[in-house]
Write a structure and sequence with these properties.
The protein has a single domain (about 45-165, about 225-345), classed as Rossmann fold. Helices cover about 40% and strands about 10% of the residues. It has 17 helices and seven strands. The chain has helices spanning about 1-20, 30, 45-50, 60, 85-90, 110-120, 120-125, 140, 155-160, 180-190, 225, 230, 235-250, 265-270, 285-290, 300-310, 325-345, and strands spanning about 70-75, 95-100, 130-135, 200-205, 215-220, 255-265, 295-300. The strands form two sheets. A five-stranded parallel beta sheet has the order 2-1-3-6-7, with helices on both faces. It has a two-stranded antiparallel sheet with strand order 4-5. α1 (about 1-20) crosses α10 (about 180-190). The chain starts with a helix and ends with a helix.
């Protein structure tokens, strides 16, 4: 009996520590990286988390008309709900934003757009602009091996317009891998940026850029590093741009303008502020893309957000791969400005 208690007691201690400090509900990076939570951090965004929803789903948009109609096709950066850029963009009175999650058809927004072009949606719903959004790290990869023959019709989308629900891991299960990984990773992070085992890196910044307890620490996903090979390759970026130009020309025949929004990786955005950045490769994706000829409207999220960093902390969430409400607002404002400018130019 005493032997059993001696074995169980250390495990129970680990379980209690993990339950107290590990959070599965907020912050994809702290969750995947087994990093101790800052319980007060997200309180600074409380008001943004409870905002009304202004954008419309396709089943509601199909019967509505507006001065400027914008359809958004994207990934998780477009799916931030109340505090996402689609919702801030939809607050502009002259812009009617349509957003429905389409990742139950495919998780590749470029493929979704190809399917939409082949279907009847653009014949049945007035769409002045389509915003194609993708996270930086896999934008190049997403442009490969696309099918141009599949179609996605409005009726199919409306029938399938149900959001996926992602279940968090159950840290309260006993025993679970979290009660081993959480204390182990936190012991190893001081020895190596990725704790030898983690897919999340923790690096020191040369100045405080976040709120909360870890103002001068950056945590980012290992994938931001793994995809640097293709993203830093000029020919790969040029190939992506060529395909986007082709899509833009196809949409123009339907009276729709294409806006491309690449969401800068967290690592890329904060790279100049990494204290020991000589240990890491420089990201060049936006540098290669910027000078290319574009038949579409391009939103340089890296330039927009980096320009705001010195004046405002938490452009991205400390604990997450995604930008915060502050970053989303900046992107929405830029989108609104570019759309209205383009409309004025077209009206002349």
């Amino acid at each position: 009996m005493f032997k059993s208690a001696a074995i169980i007691s250390p495990v129970l201690v680990l379980y209690l520590i993990t339950t107290a400090f590990y959070n599965t509900d907020e912050g994809d990076l702290t969750r995947v990286g087994y990093i101790a939570r800052d319980s007060d951090y997200r309180k600074i965004f409380k008001e943004e988390f409870s905002r009304p929803v202004y954008y419309k789903s396709l089943d509601r948009a199909a019967t509505q008309d507006s001065p400027i109609s914008v359809l958004i096709i994207g990934d998780s950066f477009s799916n931030q709900g109340r505090f996402g850029y689609p919702n801030y963009l939809a607050e502009h009175d002259s812009i009617h934003v349509i957003y429905s999650r389409l990742d139950h058809y495919t998780t590749n927004p470029i493929q979704v757009l190809y399917n939409v072009i082949k279907g009847d949606l653009l014949d049945k719903v007035t769409v002045d602009y389509i915003i194609l959004q993708s996270v930086e790290r896999i934008f190049v990869r997403r442009s490969r091996n696309l099918s141009i023959n599949n179609s996605l019709n409005l009726s199919d989308i409306i029938r399938g317009e149900a959001s996926k629900k992602t279940k968090g891991s159950n840290v309260h299960a006993f025993p679970s891998r979290e009660i081993i990984n959480f204390p182990l990773y936190n012991l190893l992070y001081p020895l190596k940026d990725n704790a030898y085992l983690s897919t999340v890196y923790r690096v020191e910044l040369n100045q405080p850029l976040f709120s909360g307890k870890r103002k001068d620490e950056l945590i980012f996903l290992e994938d931001d590093l793994l995809y640097l090979g293709s993203n830093n390759d000029t020919s790969s970026v040029r190939m992506l741009n060529d395909k986007l130009n082709t899509i833009a020309r196809q949409l123009a025949t339907k009276g729709t303008r294409l806006i491309v929004l690449p969401c800068v990786d967290k690592y890329d955005l904060y790279y100049p502020y990494i204290k020991n950045k000589d240990d890491y490769r420089a990201p060049l994706f936006f540098d290669h893309w910027a000078p290319l000829h574009k038949d579409y409207i391009w939103i340089n999220s890296k330039e927009i957000l980096r320009g705001a960093i010195p004046a405002k902390p938490d452009i991205y969430f400390y604990d997450d791969t995604h930008w915060s409400p502050w970053g989303a607002q900046l992107i929405a404002n830029e989108l609104a400005e570019r759309i209205l400018e383009d409309q004025q130019a077209l009206d002349k």
